[in-house]
Structure formats: structure tokens, C-alpha cells
Amino acid sequence: MTISESLRPVERQTLAKVVMEQLLAFIRDGGLAPGESLPSQHELARRLSVSRPVLREAIHGLATIGVVDVRPGSGCYVREPAAGSDLDSFLEQTTHETALEVLEARKVVEVELAVLAAERATLDDRASMLRVLGRLERAVLAGEATVEITSGFHEQLARAGHNAVLFRMAHALARARVEQGRRVEDALPDAGSGEYDSHLALYRAIDSGDPERARTAMREHLEVAHRWEDRIAAIRIEMTVPCR
Asked: Please, what are the domains in the chain?
């Protein structure tokens, strides 16, 4: 074996994983309860002797597996008690495959509801969607969580399809849609910045009255969510690379 083969570059995600495990131990051993905040990122980076980018990777990893909530401008808060003794027990709480199955179901139901909404939406339906879009725009500008608002938009869109059976199917997916949105917001804080533009484009496709345009817009909208899931999965893989 040559020197180049035996000596490999130290990967940043390995250090982030070590930091992540230390933070898990800190939450568990410190007895932090749900809703309690962690020290500031500046303080954590100082105490752990790591750079801010490495610390952010570790915190995003904790958010991905549902341990903490990252609230822009506020801080990092414990989401639920440390139920297990190691990282693997936390990873079991999040299932990437289930999230993808939810997206598949949404493509079946919501794409066709978008088609029907383009054909059937009334003036009241459009007004309801616009009111939700107004709330969404204000939330994005304020840097606030958007998942509940975007779910409300999808509910109004489903109503605009005027098909009671499909609406009930969409409503049955609402809880999973919200949980998926929270998962994305926790792991990818930058994702929320595009939510208003994304949903505005979807509304405009519905408002055009063109069923094919609405079908394409909804498919593209859900493909964005699929890419977010891929990013989350990549983060989880990076955070679980064994230390060498």
C-alpha cells in the first residue's frame, strides 16, 4: 500500500458527525426538555473548538433526524427528549422511504385536483387561495415558518377541484404533508425562502384555466419537494459516515 492509498483526506462530515454525537450527549445528559434552547451557535462553537460551518452541519443533521428545531433569528430548541443512547436510535425516527411514498400519493391525488381546479375554481375559490398567498408572502418576508400556511393553500386548492372524494383523499394526506414540510424546514432552512414564488406560480397556473398548464405546474411543484427529500437523504448519509 502506498502512502497516498493509506492516507486519505479528513472529511468535514466526519468532524460534523463527532460534533453531532457530542450535542446529542449534551441534550441527553443535560436533561434538556422539549422547548428548551441550546446555547448560541457562537458559544457552542467556542466550547467545542470547531468552526461555525462544521457546527451548522451538525445542527442541521440533528434537525434532519427530528431532535431539534432550528428557528431563524431565535435559536435552536430541543424538539423531543433523547429517546435512545446513540445516533442510530435517532435515525430510526425518520424514514426517507415513507416521505417518498407520501410524495407519490400526492402526485396521484394533487396533480388531478390541480387539473380540476383549473377547470372549476370559482371566484370565491380564487379569493381564498389569494388570501393564503398573502399570509405566505408576509411569513416569508419575516423569515417565519411557512409549513402550516402552505398546507392551507393546498387545502384551498383541493376545495377548488369540487370533487368531494378527491378532497377527502387530499385531506387524509394533510398531516403527512405538514410533517414533511416541517422536516424540510428543520433540515433546510433556505427552503422556505422560495415558498411564496413556488405557490404563486401554482396559483397562476390554476387561475389561467388551462388544465394542462395546471397539471405541469403541480408536477413541477412536487418535484421540488422530491429534490428536497434527496438533499435531506444526502445530509443523513454524510452525517453517518463512520469515523476513520
From this structure: 3-92 (1.10.10.10), 96-238 (1.20.120.530)
